[in-house]
């Protein structure tokens, strides 16, 4: 399922996975969430984008963002700094 926005130079859309009738509600929800991410990023998005840290962060409200950063992202950054992992978590 795709929704397109053609008022931009680059069309935006959110895409869910292929579905059967019993999965339709889930797939529509995924497509809408992907569309929200596409609007925020300025490029098309799919369910793969929803499963990334950047996709998750993009869907957080302002009230949810600080606790998520403090309790999830910051420990990952600290771990990466200690172990020289060079992760770019949260920079997408």
Describe the protein in words:
The structure is a single chain. The protein is mainly alpha-helical. It has 2 domains: 1-59, no CATH class; 60-92, no CATH class. It has helices spanning 24-41, 47-50, 53-58, 62-83, and strands at 2-5, 12-15, 45-46. 14% of the residues are buried. This is DUF2267 domain-containing protein.
Itemize the secondary structure elements and their pairings:
Layout: E1 2-5, E2 12-15, H1 24-41, E3 45-46, H2 47-50, H3 53-58, H4 62-83
Parallel strand pairs: 2-3
Antiparallel strand pairs: 1-2
Protein name: DUF2267 domain-containing protein
Organism: Citricoccus parietis
Q: Compute the gyration radius: what is it?
A: 16 Å
Relative strand content: 5-15%
In total, the number of strands is: 3
Can you write the helix and strand succession as a string?
EEHEHHH
What summary fits the major beta sheet?
A: 3 strands, mixed
Sum up the overall morphology in one term.
Answer: elongated
What structural class is derived from the secondary structure elements?
Answer: mainly alpha
Helical residues, percent:
40-55%
Low-confidence stretches: none
Euclidean distance between termini CA atoms: 25 Å
SS summary, helix count: 4
In round numbers, the mean pLDDT is 79
Major sheet strand order: 1-2-3
Number of domains: 2
List its traits:
single chain; 92 residues; mainly alpha; 2 domains; three-stranded mixed beta sheet; 3 strands; 54% helix; DUF2267 domain-containing protein
């Amino acid at each position: 399922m795709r929704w397109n926005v053609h008022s931009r130079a680059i069309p935006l859309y959110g895409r869910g996975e292929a579905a059967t009738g019993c999965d339709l509600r889930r797939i529509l929800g995924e497509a809408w969430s992907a569309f929200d991410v596409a609007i925020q990023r300025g490029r098309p998005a799919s369910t793969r984008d929803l499963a990334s840290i950047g996709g998750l962060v993009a869907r957080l409200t302002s009230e949810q963002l600080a606790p998520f950063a403090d309790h999830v992202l910051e420990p990952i950054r600290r771990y990466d700094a200690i172990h020289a992992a060079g992760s770019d978590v949260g920079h997408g």
